[in-house]
Design goal:
Shape of chain B: elongated
Radius of gyration of chain A: 30 Å
Helix content of chain B: 40-55%
Structural class of chain B: alpha+beta
Largest sheet of chain B: 5 strands, antiparallel
Distance between the termini of chain A: 74 Å
Number of strands of chain A: 13
Order of helices and strands of chain A: HEHHEEEHHHHEEEEEEEEHEH
Helix content of chain A: 25-40%
Oligomer: heterodimer
Largest sheet of chain A: 5 strands, antiparallel
Amino acid sequence: MFKFDEQCNPRQISLTGVRAIVILALLNLKPCTFQEIKEFLINSNIVTREYSIDTIRIDLNTLKYVGCDISKATKKTNNMYILRSHPFQLTLDEDEVEALAKIYKNIYKNLSIERILEYDTLFEKLADAIQDEHIKEYLRGISVLKGLNKDLINELLSDAYKNTRLTIEYKPGASKSVEYDITVEKLAFRSDKLYIYCYNHTINKRTFLNFSRLKKILARALRSETVNVDDVYVEFELKNSQNYSLEETEEIISKKGDVIQVRGAYYTDFIALQRMLSFGPDCIVISPDNFKEQIVAKLQSMRSQYD
Amino acid sequence: MTKSLSKVNAASLKVLYTLQLLFERDLEMNELIKYYELYHNEYNSNFVMSKYINTCRYCGIDIKKINNKYQIVNFPIGISFSENELSLFNELKNCCEKMKVQHLLENMQEILNKINRRAERPISPVSNAVIKDANIKTFEKACLLSQKVKITLKNNESIQCEPIEVSIKDDEINLIVFDGTNSKSITPDNIEQVRILPQKSNNKFLPTTVLFEVKGKLAKNYQLRAHEEVMRILSNGDLLIKNRFEDKIELFHRLMRYGDNCILVSPKLYVAEMKEFIEETLKNYA
């Protein structure tokens, strides 16, 4: 509840004005009956016991006159006055929401899923507080978790923390659903999509599954099980290095002019392969040899498409 | 305003009107009196207006006189934000400062003004220093006005061109221009000065349309980028994607990442260059 500023000289305030603001604040907190409002006003020394239902009607009419939408206290509302909207609500215009969306889109890739969930809740809270339907919709569309099951995300985060082994139903594309036994290691975005990074016991390797294709969790093992799988380590030389930003899991081993030698750790060899290919001619894989062979084979296959 | 004036409390109404005016904007006393008279057809003296302001203050609405203007610093009615929620706004503000785009900075400041009214501990304003990035500011203005610009680079080269947009990607800002033949991306760090020219932009900039095919698993999971659309779904489920505006080199690097799940289809020049790009990469292992 708000605090009265006792410092104010009582002769320099309008008590009826105070009444109106207090009723607005009370109703903003929760729907109230006449009796509840009266009790609060009496306890705050704003009115006497004589405060009547007729006076509150005048106070409510005054609030309605400035744009408050307040319901009547009827049997249907449990004899409560309900404040539906008021002119002192938070407002955001389209330009402001557009700015929020642009800034958010620029940082979410560097955020943890937990933080992205916090943003999702914040945008939802802002949308709830705002009257304008168009702005509400805009705000609800900002989050990258839009349309995803947040409870399930939270469950998986908890599973990742506890190393819980799960049996899931997963639908890869148009083909039939499959059952996988997995241990979730983390959740992260790749190309604007949420993926479950996990050890897949069914196929005995690490993989990343599209979260939106997870149909349901069929079972959870009671015991936790730590999976010890190493990342894929690749050493490579990178020319024109000033044109690239290294990822968190990549470290510079040596530097000569704008040529750097980097050691990177990647979740799977597929991710490592994509990363090396993305550098184009600026990258030469140094080790391991089998990975180098994979790169060459992939490049040959790519070239053959243009013959 | 459906209720008739006879059924309302006049004094309360005046306090609420005063609050509404201050809710809209920060006002000096004489402005407050003037606006009140304008909107509500009634003159109030300094003394009366002060009484209404004090009434609001008594209810916990923190109204301070800053630079001679009455300003609602804290408004405890309605939505409020936790420390953690404020840290999210702070994170957005910090990111926005790095982006250095004037209209984003201005809008962020407007948002903070509104949020701070509902916060126990207000977030510090958007840094003035970053707003003063004059070259980006001038370029943005030229985009809005559709005026040509002259960009002088730090190596003393200069380009007369049409401004297209300020592009922001992963905290990196680039000014995208059309020099009459191609679109170019210029880093603000390399710019000495941007000057708006009196000539209007011809708006002849037509971005190259690039077509590429994505196949197999990638086609099932492909996430369309901004300025991309699916042109056709092929019988085997592969997709033909149309891409515009993306910087050529960036696009090449991205398509390389997709390996043999992707093939560039047109324009011919790009196809030849892509092939060359792959061959150059292969030469590294010869």
